[in-house]
Amino acid sequence: MSQERVEIVREGIEAWNRHDFELGVRHLAPDVEWVPASPAAVERSVYHGLDEVARGFNAIWDSWDVFQFEEKEIRDLEDSVLWLGVVHMRGSTSQIELDQEFANLLVFSGDQVVRVQGFRSWQEAIEAASAS
User: Fold this and answer.
1) Which of 78, 130, 64 is nearest to 103 (CA)?
2) Domains of the chain listed by start with CATH number
């Protein structure tokens, strides 16, 4: 199951990069919790359920022309997957570009993602993954 989970995460990241919400939610549980990392959090700090996640997804794409993830490392942690990489962003209005370290910790139940938490630093994500 663990390699399958790694591939699910990679598929989700690729779907995000293509703005393909339908593909991206294929493995999200109906009651998924998404905790985006700032500056990703546009409207609220926690989204619950697929409808709220869709609204948050759209709000991000309204605020950023570019919000692309580039994988550097991915770790299988049994019930979760830690994705470590870089995010490339460009503001829709300001056109200011940012590149920064970024991480996503995805918690699974079976083959469904039940929680996604974003982090602006690898260290913070690694610490959170160790605590869970």
Assistant:
1) 130
2) 2-131 (3.10.450.50)
Burial of 30 (0-12, 13-18, 19+ CB in 10 A): exposed
Only one residue has tokens 């299988």, namely 76
DSSP-assigned states of every residue in 55-111: HHHHHHHHHEEEEEEEEEEEEE-SSEEEEEEEEEEEETTT--EEEEEEEEEEEEETT
Q: Read off the pTM.
A: 0.89
Is the CB of residue 119 less than 8 Å from the CB of residue 37? yes
Query: What is the enclosing helix (H) or strand (E) of 112?
Result: strand 112-119
Question: What digits encode the pLDDT tens for the residues 31-84?
Answer: 999 998 865 445 558 999 999 999 888 888 888 888 899 999 999 998 999 999
Cα Rg, the chain, nearest whole Å: 14
